[in-house]
Structures are given as C-alpha cells and as structure tokens.
Amino acid sequence: MKNHDNHISSYSLNLTVLLILLVLTTTSVLAIKFHFGAFTVAVALIIASVKAAIVLTYFMHLKFENLLLRLMVSGVFLLFAIVVVITFIDYYFR
Amino acid sequence: MNYNSSPTAPLNFLNHKTGLWSWLSSTDHKRIGLLYLYSITIFFCAAAVLGLLMKIEKFAPGETIMTAQTYNGIFTIHGIIMIFIVVIPGLAAVFGNILLPIMIGAKDVAFPKLNLFSWYVYITGACLGLYSQFAKGHVPDAGWTFYVPYSAEVNSNIVIALTAAFVLGFASILTGLNFIVTIHRMRAPGMTWFRMPLFPWSLYATAWIQILATPIIGITLLMVIAERTLQIGFFDPALGGDPVLYQHLFWIYSHPAVYVMILPAMGVVSEIFPTFSQKPIFGYMPIVFSSLAIALVGYFVWGHHMFTSGMSYQARWFFSLLTFLVAIPSAIKVFNWLSTMYGGSVDLKPPLLYAISFIFLFTIGGFTGLTLGSLATNIQTHNTDFVVAHFHYIVFGGMGFGFFAAIHYWYPKIYGRMYNIRWANIAWAILFTGFNVLYFPMFILGLQGMPRRYFDYDPKFQTGQMISSIGAFILIIGLIGMISNLVYHVRRGAIAPANPWHGVTLEWQIPSPPPHENFDEVPVITRDPYVFDNPYTK
C-alpha cells in the first residue's frame, strides 16, 4: 500500500459514483419487470457485481492502490464468480 | 501460570509477567497461541470422551449405555466441538500464533490486539456451543453439518449451536486476516517470499481460505436461523426454497475448511522432515506451489459431498473430475517429504514418528477419498461408516497427528524443557495402534453397508464394531500417555537447549523459551531456509 501517497477523491467524482450506483440500483429493481427466465438471478448478480466493483474501485480507493493489491482483490472476485458459476451448473442442468 | 520461576531463569515470554490477568490481557502472539492451546486441549479431551462413549454404545447391538436420542445429541456435539472448536482453529491458531512471527523474523503479528480479540471471540463461540447443550430444550441433534430441512424444523437448541458456529467463524476470519497482513508486511529484511520457511507458507495458503470461505458458512447459518425464526424460504420447498442449495452453500465452505485443517499440518511436517533428516527439503518450490494449488483447487470440489443429493449429472462429473485433480498437489507433497528423508541422517525422534504417521494415515485417507470422489463407488459408500473412517483418517490422522508432531517438535522451544522421549515413543505406538484398530474396521463396515450415525446395527456388524470399540480404548490410553507426558514435563522436564533438534529455521536461533519480543534485533536473512551447514551436518 502506498502509505506515503494518500489520495483524496474530489466531491464531483464521489457524487458521480453515487449517481451511477443509484442508477444501477434502480436498474436492478426495474429488471424484475422483465422475465429473463433462468438468467433472472444472473442479471441481478451481474448488476450487483458491477456496483460492488465501483464501490471498491472508487470509494475504497482500490484504483489508487498498487498492482499487487488490485490483483488480490480481482482474484477474490474471480474466485467468487467461479463458485457462483459452478453452483449454477447444477441448477441449469438439473 | 508461572513457568521457570527460578530467580536465575532468564526473562522470557512465559515469565516476564505473572498472574492470570497478564495472560488474559496479553497481546504477545506466543501467549495467545498458548491460550488457544490450552482451550483447544480441554475441548479436545471432552470431545474425545464423547467419542469413546459412542464407541461403548456400539460395542454391542441394541441400546447399551444410552438412548438413540442421546446418541444423536452426542455425535452432534462431538462433531461441533471437534470441527469448529478444535480442528479448524487447531494448528493455525496455536502454532501459527506462537511461531509465525518468529519464523519470519517479526516481533509480533501485524494486529496484536485483534489477535487477542480473536481468542475472546473464539471462547465466546465455544461457550455458546456448550450452552446449546445445557440451555432449556433439547440438545441439538442434527449433526455438525446442520443439514436442512431437519435442522430448520427440529425442536432443539439448533439456533444456539448455529450461532456458536457463526461466532467461531469470526475468530477464524480475524486470525486469517492477521496472518496474511503479517506475512505480507512484517517479514524480516532479506526474507523474500521464497526464503520463507514452509510452515508460514502453509499458513498463508490457509489464511486465504479462512478469510474467503468462512463468510459463506456464516451467511448460510444465518439463513437457517432466518428460516427457523422468520419463516423466510431459503431452503424449505414449502416456502419456495431448495434444500440442495443449503448443501451447496455449506460445502462451499466446509470442503475448503478441510484444507484449513490439513494445510498447516502439511506445513508442520515440511519443517520436521528436513530437521530430522538433517537435509534440505526436497522440492521447496513444488511444496510451496502445491500448497497454493490445494488452497485454490480445493475451492471447487465441494460437490463431491453431494453426489447422492439429486444434483445434476453434469455437476457431478465436473466435481468428480476436480476431486481427482486436487489429489495431485497432495501427492506431490508426499513424494517430496519421502525424498527429503532419502539419503538423510534420519533421527527417529517423536516428532518424526508423528510426521511419518501423518504420511501413512493421510495417504490412506487420501486414497479412500478418491473412492468417495468417484461417482460409481460413491453411491455404495455414501453415508456409511466408510465416510466416517475416511474423514477421521484425513482429519485425525492428518491434522491430529500433524498437531501431535508439532507439539513434540516445538515443545522444547515453547517451554524450554524437554519431555520424556521414551515415554513419548511408547505413547505414540499405543496411539498409532489404537487409531488404526479404531478406524480401519470402519472402512470394512462401511463397504458392508453399515450406515453412519446409527446407534444400533444389524448383529452381522458386531465383530467389526467390537474391534473398533476396543481400538477406541487403546487410542484413549495413548492420548492419556501422550498428554500426561507433555503436561508433567512442562515444569519438571530437563532444561532443553535452544536448538535440541539441530534445526535451521529462525525459531531455533533464539533462546528457549523465546524472549518476550522474540529478537533483540530484527534479523537480516541472507540465505534459503533449509541450509544445513551447521556443525551437526554430516
């Protein structure tokens, strides 16, 4: 971590991120009205994952951290995604 | 607790402060490790007695010393204590805490207060587990796996037991977090990643599993509580849920949890084989990467616990394939440990006896795991005593004997005193014999069709059950012999030199017991961890 290089985000950036998150929340609520069949949960998870990624990147300052930390967090996301996909292999083919 | 209280004894972590409060408030990683050791030992002894009671019940068919309901309660609390309170924290919380900072050249873990907090969280969870036995109502009887729909419907203290497991998970997460940060940030100058000994490497792989997998079981257990108390339909089909989803979520954590148990044990024996062969470890890099590979691939094999649950065929063969793949890194380690001994100056002291036993028992557990991981044979052996035998060969034979190897290896370092070697050898022989007499017949019983978790059985199984029960008594005698030797010599053992086994990793370069802050000056590391150029090397 770059302890010596603290990053201070601007209000405008934080506000923009907040607005994007609100739009995505609205989208996930509105998405219920459409019938995606077997992919309903996948749509909800994808929107939620995008929101989580934005929060991590900007609000939790991952964007301003070093490569190792970014890779570690990305690896965790990838792992979680694989676990979800494998679980759904069962549901999709059952 | 007052160790080495002689006025001439040099100050060390055991005696630099005295009194109970100095222990309960200590942020010294070594003292916290000992707090875990004593807590875990007490719970282990209690759960071992429960295991013996089950075996006494099974000595003859029919009801002998307890009712079926009592038996259900006993195997449940035996499992909860052994898994969540003893085995999962086990090696990492005890020997990880005591030795990780020393082995990487640090004065403490990254977050000492969080470390102490973890122990209090652990004790809180353990007490909740005990409370579930004594609170008003029926004792939990759903097994340590808490499978729905039974656990969501049964009228017993399941919610308290679930809360206990939930709280214990937090202690595990906090310890894992502490270890990852410690290893990343606090290695001594010159200790590059590949100069780090193998026990810290195994703790690193374990810690990642702890922080990534444990939250899943936490959420899952909360979902069961929500279903029981708020009637939210996660798992109950009548409420729109799916019981197989519980099994997925439970095993997404609980299979990697097996690696939380076994990886540190692999790290322990990776320290013991070079020391007692006086030879560098064979295949340092393959052992490092196989630890990471086990941690990674171990995440994706959970479905082999569910082959008969009604899961789709595609998912079953997918999990079966991955299960076979995870055997590869484990086998790599076994070959490397054996190769380390080959041509070495092998000294059959108690730690090495336990380490060799670890390989023997873990290999039997591993091969029978492949039987269970294969789709066809799984149907024959699923939910039989074969599974119980396999599981105990892996967890007790693997983690348990790894733990015993660790305590015999680092005992003189921790206490500055030596146990009786002859006594330890005899106890090992009894323990090893008892273990195999107890658990091996269960493979045969399982293949013959003896279901697990049944308090009664068909008389045709009696011979195997009797042999197994006799093995339980032998095992308990061995345990008593081993523990009494270790406890007795904490105060009365001969003073141990700083490096009685002629080890070369950092913990053997400091006095025994270690000073409060481990090192007077932070060491500078200039070479690989297993270079045996000391005077003892041939």
Number of strand elements of chain B: 2
Outline the low-pLDDT stretches of chain B: 1-7
- The best one-word shape of chain A is flat
Average pLDDT rating of chain B:
93
Largest sheet of chain A: none
By DSSP (H or I, 4+ residues per run), the number of helices of chain B equals 16
Largest interface: A-B, 13 and 15 residues
CATH class of chain B: Mainly Alpha
Q: Work out the count of structural domains of chain B.
A: 1
Query: What percent of residues of chain A are in strands?
Result: under 5%
Q: What number is the mean pLDDT of chain A?
A: 86
What would you say this structure looks like, in words?
The complex is a heterodimer of chains A (about 90) and B (about 550). By secondary structure, chain A is mainly α. Chain A has one domain (about 10-95). Helices cover about 70% and strands about 0% of the residues of chain A. Chain A is built from 3 helices and no strands. Chain A has helices at about 10-30, 40-60, 65-94. In chain A, α1 runs antiparallel to α2 (about 40-60). The longest helix of chain A is centred in the C-terminal third of the chain and has 27 residues, at about 65-95. Chain A is flat and about 50 Å long. The N and C termini of chain A lie far apart (about 45 Å). Chain B has helices at about 20-25, 30-55, 70-85, 90-105, 110-135, 150-155, 160-185, 200-230, 245-275, 285-295, 315-340, 350-375, 375-380, 385-415, 420-450, 460-490, and strands at about 415-420, 495. Chain B is an all-alpha fold. Chain B is globular, with a radius of gyration of 23 Å. Chain B has a single domain, classed as Cytochrome c oxidase-like, subunit I domain (Cytochrome C Oxidase, Chain A, Up-down Bundle), CATH 1.20.210. Chain B starts with 19 loop residues before the first helix and ends in a 43-residue tail after the last strand. The interface between A and B is medium-sized, with 13 and 15 residues.
